[in-house]
């Protein structure tokens, strides 16, 4: 049988009942006329494509899709399709290095993704891995995590199972206010051009981590809730000069697109976990990394007041900035001239 003919094609309706099991060693193609309802367990041993409806019953906790190879199978598995696919539990188990799963489909998860083995690469144009309210990312590691954008929708704390170049480097957000709030996250390692284009920093920042950065953005629905952010350091990626006194000096910083410079978001350090958390809700979204700060410029409450901000280097003051003033929502600012 020719390889191009080794496809399980659905042009009608497939229903897998709770407790039922189905598997295919061929590519699976749910065509534009096909409908799949999976309340049981389905094993996909090759590629997966969905061009119509792939779903499960509400709260179908027995629904599981397992993406793995049959016996001695090798190579990456493609997960594609023009229509979004709704999963409850997903198991990723493929030992192919660098990219085990190529996601070019909108994969919605409402139960869990079990990262057993293999990295899932989320295509920047056609892919999306979305964890809905209650969905969990189970046991991500260096060997198995998501590379590319991961979306979280819901009003609960979430740790993004993201990494880059074979390293798992998570970010965690606190629970947003609304169940429909959406946040997207991504991690990048060793992108020199990124930092070359973003080298300006506010005066309180001393040394910047230019090896890695995390992206946290609000979803396209313009979510209104706000979050606190937790990042971690790792001696394999975080420059050692940033870690001489992390409890005192290490902070989270954010690239402010309007001011075109890195700004301080503060930081509370957990040495045992090698984590750092913003002391209040972040003041903006986009790109984040770690940095050391000049502690002699920091007042009580991590407040920093700048007398001069000149990101373009012309010596003229462009902005009046008070870092971490958002920690004190009832503040007032009075400005006097030189004669009071």
Automatic annotation (TrEMBL):
<protein>
    <submittedName>
        <fullName>Uncharacterized protein</fullName>
    </submittedName>
</protein>
<dbReference type="Pfam" id="PF13585">
    <property type="entry name" value="CHU_C"/>
</dbReference>
């Amino acid at each position: 049988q020719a390889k191009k003919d080794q496809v399980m094609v659905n042009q009608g309706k497939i229903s897998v009942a709770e407790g039922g099991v189905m598997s295919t060693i061929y590519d699976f193609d749910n065509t534009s006329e096909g409908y799949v309802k999976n309340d049981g367990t389905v094993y996909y041993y090759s590629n997966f494509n969905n061009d119509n409806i792939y779903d499960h019953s509400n709260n179908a906790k027995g629904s599981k899709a397992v993406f793995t190879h049959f016996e001695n199978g090798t190579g990456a598995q493609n997960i594609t399709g023009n229509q979004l696919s709704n999963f409850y539990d997903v198991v990723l188990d493929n030992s192919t290095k660098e990219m085990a799963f190529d996601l070019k489909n909108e994969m919605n998860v409402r139960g869990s993704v079990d990262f057993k083995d293999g990295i899932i690469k989320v295509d920047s144009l056609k892919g999306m891995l979305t964890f809905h309210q209650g969905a969990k990312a189970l046991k991500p590691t260096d060997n198995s995590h998501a590379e590319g954008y991961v979306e979280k929708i819901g009003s609960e704390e979430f740790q993004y199972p993201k990494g880059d170049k074979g390293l798992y480097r998570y970010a965690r957000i606190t629970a947003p206010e609304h169940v429909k709030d959406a946040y997207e996250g991504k991690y990048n390692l060793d992108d020199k051009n990124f930092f070359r284009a973003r080298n300006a920093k506010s005066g309180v920042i001393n040394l910047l981590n230019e090896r890695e950065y995390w992206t946290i953005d609000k979803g396209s629905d313009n979510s209104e809730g706000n979050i606190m952010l937790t990042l971690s350091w790792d001696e394999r990626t975080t420059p050692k000069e940033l870690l001489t006194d992390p409890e005192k000096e290490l902070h989270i910083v954010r690239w402010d697109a309007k001011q075109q410079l890195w700004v301080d978001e503060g930081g509370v350090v957990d040495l045992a976990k090698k984590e750092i958390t913003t002391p209040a809700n972040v003041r903006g979204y986009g790109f984040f990394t770690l940095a050391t700060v000049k502690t002699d410029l920091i007042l009580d409450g991590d407040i920093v007041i700048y007398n001069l901000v000149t990101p373009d280097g012309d010596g003229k003051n462009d902005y009046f900035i008070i870092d971490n003033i958002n920690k004190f929502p009832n503040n007032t600012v009075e400005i006097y001239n030189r004669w009071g």
